[in-house]
Design brief:
Chains A, B: One of its GO terms (molecular function) is pyridoxal phosphate binding. Chains A, B: One of its GO terms (biological process) is carboxylic acid metabolic process. Two copies of one chain form a homodimer. Chain A is of the alpha/beta class. Chain A contains 15 helices and eleven strands. Chain A is globular and about 60 Å long.
């Protein structure tokens, strides 16, 4: 294809992307765009065609007014930074535009995906297992619940799980997850037909971890009442507090009753690559049936890149593999990942992770997490030493939750953003709104974090004076 | 961010992307890469870091060996071509890396999505409705079934649908879809806990359309047996034959029993923009409850870009909206699309479609489809006129299924690909393997199609001679 308009678009990008990078460097925090100004950036769609240069100019204006997620002053979500290899791979993905269902359609890119899956399974200790990429942690979790539910239902009486009959059952079912777990659990319950009422919310300790005794008690009561457990979800890195549920005692309970144990490591899964933390945070992982692992969070690749790993092979094919003669025609099944995926047409998410991982190696990610944990310790020490700042809990991973005395966390976060100083969110910990500082960007430094705390205290003091 | 390694990656892309485009122009069909050569392109992942230039070189080698989906000789899937505005927007998306849940995180890009949704709803005639973007037609269909199931269950007795209790029900449920429907229907049934056995496969006529009388008969039998219908799925553009199920008589049946009617327009939905065809293909759409519409197929934007449109508002929030204090904090709900989406973290799929649509306008898409239909008529006339070629059925949309006398369609497709002449798939029609020629690329011409038929006949004649 020598389409001149595509070459014009590439030329435009060659100018725009460095301009965007320079703009980010010059002003790392963009205060929120007022709605009327945002509206003006979005010309309506209609019958008439617009020349390509005009459309590209609209894209440029939008890009220059989009919140920045990649600069070191962005602490607001569970991702941050920009990986050069991964971003290049994602742009190549847009150019290639293959669909990841068959070797016929995607060629060697299927082998990239398979290599990645093999490496991730080995790291998780699920060496005999299988995996599939989904479009985010919510969908990985949903798929885990669906597989667990189908398997649990099939085991009721049938000698062999029969997906053809899955769900044609009666009775009450429940799933178990902590009070700090991600909202994708109730969402999955609603979508999968279990209902939000099926979600048992288990109490947490002061660090945000599920209390195994509370889980055991709730399970006992349910079993006595004839409720059937679908799955226990242990969160590895909760959204607000960054807590890791204790896998060993939870696995003990799950195994005792033969219940599927899922580990939601959407956030924390990547920390498997931290050699120092791994043993402590993941003890018991080998007893889990499934693991959600989002590489688009702590591994720094563009959204989305999430995998669902399964300890035992065969379930994906049994519950997702459909005959499709027009699609799955030649090549062995191992080369047709569409047989094991929740999607049919599927964008190539693995390539960008593979590229980043090639660039950094396990060693590089290990070093990254060591650095991020060191920065966390640095910030926590600063907060502990400051008379006006108060930690909400001792953090287990990279979320640091704290408050400033006498200042609304919400107001403080909004002000920091309005003033172009930082993007940081707030979350509720033990019933109080706290500032949630996420340290996820490998470009992070202690100088940036010191400046952040300085700006925060100065802004907070002003707010305090204004309100008194 | 003035990260020099990112600038190096951009420089690499500035050279690579035109090189890839030139390579496509020079050799529009890449014969399949043998497995051993593909393996050599995928260095294993391991502990050690690799320098960025080496990794980028790996990406280049992979890209130069990936099957081409964008050239006019690619007729193999339901998409084709490369839109310059959309591809540029997708690359900008990789650079910006925002998540589409809130105005806080995505700023004006939320308004882009809302503008697109409004325009699509207006075109579908669902002006009072709502919509959400998913990661492909399979997930849009899955979501439609989930919403229909929750609503059907809730209506059983409850005055107000209660998603908290969804699914805690008893009894047999079923969904209805044609024998030519996409495999995402049984896949959704397995995932959603209805089971593959819940899928009623309704007979089709010789053009691949669901036979309403057969649907009515099956429904009657099920209702008499106490089975509860979840949803009727009418396909607008089946995968192999491109058939449009007749919406009017199906809606009549659905309305009579108060059953959710879903239109799977993953392929065909885009043809709503064909002013000439619209009335004929979509009569009755206003009586459907939901519509799947994949823009990554006939509208030419990179994968994935799929929307689920709903005629009535409120269901997405009721069944997908979860409290998440740390996320949905400020701004009105209309600006927080995460409340209505199946995902939490979500890549920006709408921007690329918005850019393409700005560039072409409704007028441009109307002209595109007029051109594609004219090319289809041209090809069909050629096939009809050729003594060795035989149409399988009169096509309703842009899939042309035909056979060559005395030649295996499978062998013929493989040979065309091996010889670098064309990429085309085969599919089963009325029990016979036929060549499925998909005319989806706006860069298509009658000269390319004539050459394709010439190559096909020559190759087929050779195969016939060799086997006789």
């Amino acid at each position: 294809m020598s389409d001149p308009s595509y070459l014009a678009a590439l030329e435009f990008l060659a100018t725009l992307l460095p301009e965007l990078a320079a703009s980010e460097a010059a002003q790392p925090v963009r205060p929120p765009v007022p709605l009327d100004r945002a509206q003006a950036l979005v010309p309506p769609l209609g019958a008439k065609a617009r020349p390509l240069p005009e459309v590209l100019a609209s894209l440029r204006a939008l890009a220059l007014n989009t919140p920045l997620t990649t600069t070191p002053q962005f602490f607001n979500q569970l991702f941050g930074g920009r990986d050069p290899a991964a971003t290049a791979a994602d742009m190549i993905t847009a150019h290639l535009n293959v669909s990841m269902y068959t070797y016929k359609a995607a060629g060697p890119l299927v082998l990239v995906e398979n290599a990645l899956i093999e490496h991730m399974l080995a790291i998780a200790g699920f060496t005999a297992g299988e995996a599939t990429f989904t479009n985010g942690g919510s969908l990985s979790n949903l798929l885990a619940v669906a597989l667990a539910r189908n398997e649990a239902q099939a085991r009721r009486g049938d000698p062999d799980p029969d997906p053809d009959q899955a769900g044609q059952w009666t009775g009450k079912w429940a799933l178990y997850t902590s009070a700090e777990a991600h909202y994708s659990m109730p969402k999955a319950a609603t979508i999968l037909g279990l209902g939000r009422g099926a979600v048992r919310v288990i109490e947490i300790d002061e660090q945000g971890r599920m209390i195994p005794a509370a889980l055991a008690a709730r399970l006992r009561a349910d079993l006595q009442a004839g409720v059937r457990p679908v799955l226990i979800n242990a969160t590895l890195g909760t959204t607000v507090m960054g807590a890791f549920d204790p896998l060993e005692p939870i696995a003990e309970i799950a195994n005792q009753h033969g219940i599927w144990l899922h580990a939601d490591g959407a956030l924390g899964g990547s920390l498997l690559l931290s050699r120092e933390r791994r043993a402590q945070l993941f003890a018991g992982l080998e007893r889990c049936d499934s693991l959600t692992w989002d590489a688009h969070k702590l591994m720094g690749v563009p959204l989305t890149c999430s995998a669902l790993l399964l300890r035992e092979p065969g379930l994906l094919d049994r519950h997702l593999g459909e005959d499709a003669h027009y699609l799955f025609q030649t090549d062995e099944d191992q080369l047709n990942p569409g047989l094991r995926s929740i999607q049919c047409g599927r964008r190539n998410d693995p390539l960008k992770l593979w590229a980043a991982w090639q660039h950094h190696g396990d060693d590089g990610y290990d070093a990254r997490f060591a650095q991020l944990f060191a920065l966390r310790d640095h910030v926590v020490a600063r907060i502990d030493a400051h008379p006006d700042l108060r930690m909400s809990h001792a953090p287990q991973s990279l979320n640091v939750c704290f408050e400033m005395d006498g200042v609304s966390s919400e107001q403080l976060c909004l002000q920091l953003n309005q003033r172009g100083l930082a993007v940081v969110g707030y979350g509720r910990v033990n019933g109080r709104d706290t500032i949630r500082l996420v340290i996820a960007n490998p470009a992070q430094t202690s100088a940036v974090l010191d400046q952040f705390l300085e700006d925060l205290v100065a802004t907070g003091s002003e707010l305090r004076r204004a309100s008194s």
